[in-house]
Design goal:
Elements lengths: L7 H9 L19 H12 L5
């Protein structure tokens, strides 16, 4: 992820708060489409729910 883009700060916040982990341990792909499962995981993590 390039620094200084319009999404840098929100993505950093989401990563630091455990909402997203990126596409691997070392990358984040802002151009990749988010799946329904990934979006559900974001919402669950944001709301501190356990869906297991």
């Amino acid at each position: 992820m390039s620094a200084g883009t319009y999404y840098t700060d929100p993505v950093r916040w989401a990563f630091e708060n455990g909402i997203t982990t990126g596409t691997s341990l070392t990358t984040f792909d802002p151009n990749q489409a988010v799946t329904r499962v990934q979006f559900a995981a974001f919402l669950s993590r944001y709301d501190n729910l356990n869906l297991n």
